[in-house]
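hey m, so remember when u said the tokens were messed up on ur end? i reran from scratch. heres the input so u can diff it against urs
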Amino acid sequence: MPYIAIDTNIFEHLLNPDVNSDLHIDKLLGYLSMERYKLLVDSTRKIGNEYQRMIIPIILNTDDTGQKLQLLRYWMIHAVRYHVELIQSDTLMQHIRRIICEIAEHTDRAFVYVVCKMDSMLVTNDHTHIVGRRSELLKKTKRERGPNTDIKRSNDACIKFFGRGESV
């Protein structure tokens, strides 16, 4: 089974028509669920706690049974989660911490860490802390990660999985 890390903002943007006007996030999350991707989370529960705080209330506070809520329920309740041991003191985390240096960005560092450890992809729309620093993150972590590690915005992840020619 392949692995993927999905930033909390992707689940939030699923419900935001300004960001998801073309339904590309619906298509991406649906595809990843059908292909049975495992959701990467960290052993220190930074990612899981953020999901719990930000996404679970959306699911619990609605009676909606539409496709978007079904996707959220799948990823938050039913998707297989793979816990990656996060070691705060290792070289990989030290490199990430130098680049994502803001004190409150523990979860963003955890997202980058788990994809590096699992040689996987992080889907995020966080331009400020992650996407805008993508090349530096990938360059500085090169020795501690596999060759397939990548960080993509949701629309770029769609292009990777579906190609540029297909409408998303």
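this time it looks ok to me. The mean pLDDT is 94. if urs says something different then somethings off w ur setup not the seq
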